[in-house]
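Example record

Each entry pairs one chain with its bound ligand, magnesium ion.
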Amino acid sequence: MLANKTLLLLPGDGIGPEVMAQARRVLNWLQKTNRASFEISEDLVGGAAIDVHGVPVTEATMVRALAADAILFGSVGGPKWDSVPFDIRPEAALLRLRKDLGVFANLRPAKVFDALVDSSSLKPELVRGLDIMIVRECIGGIYFGEPRGVETLPDGQQRGINTEVYTTSEIERVGRVAFDLARKRGKRVASVEKSNVMESGLLWRQVMTALRNAEYPDVELSHVLADNCAMQLVRTPKQFDVIVTSNLFGDILSDLASMLTGSLGMLPSATLGAPDSLGHRHALYEPIHGSAPDIAGKGLANPLAQMLSFAMLLRYSFGMDEDALLIERACTNVLASGLRTADVMAPGCARVGTHVMGEAVVRELDKLAA
Ligand code: IPM
Ligand code: MG
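Structure tokens for the complex follow.
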């Protein structure tokens, strides 16, 4: 058994707490079966923190987050907080966590489960076996670039400003993450930018080319313009292996890619920082889906993305590949057995809620481990 690992759980808003409760059952299962020992704390974030503390993430939570070995995050936001000032919106918590933790590489797999091939909006033959890894730069670019804001011009008009900025080292470090991942997969990286209109995109392209030639000659690199990438993703998605791109393009393309798989409710993500001299790095794991306020509190949400995010946490933060695989296999088997939450419901399947789905995964874990 591994030594104690500190985990911070931040369930957040909407369906976040419901799906987190199911991930917690998997976590408990690992402890109960002596596969791991975690020191767990839980905190408010997003709207839930605004309601109690007036801010989407408190300084005390930030201190805990910085001290944790890994963070499992639910989702934040909802109509209740639509009118709070921009800089303290629920989403600001997520952006602050990413920025202060320095987690620059957001890994967003878009993987099709065989059992869900028919849930995709694309034809089954286009998506069967699809397995793309999108690596999104996560703490730079237009999300954080200066200058930003809204100013009033002399003629009384207002002007909104955001700035896309990337430095060589910011591009290189996310590029390395993408190339390293590609080496363990299909050895192909598509670097995505708009070098035909943006100087920052041209720099991105040049830096990726130089990095590939200097350090990754064994990996095939292609350059794809962002608009073309969106088109290619819905035309022939299986042409891609690893995609590496900026914060904003990654935000958009990962939503697009995730829908190819049939359900946002299925996809996990990991956001990783740079390893320190001991190999430790900050890491934040979250489902790709949002807080889904329309179904919150109804027990309808699909908990699999949250559970699979926990599996990613085991793999990337603790090197517990075997346990991660076990969880992934359990989720796959439960789907194959025909249990479905509403978002992936199909004819002939049995529709279940959040809790029953979570229970089924734990039961499957028992079976697999027996
Ligand atoms: C995401 C989300 C966030 C983002 C929001 C909630 C700030 O859309 O993680 O993709 O834009 O990064
Ligand atoms: Mg997004």
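Residues 91, 94-95, 251 surround 3-isopropylmalic acid (ligand 1) (CB under 6 Å).
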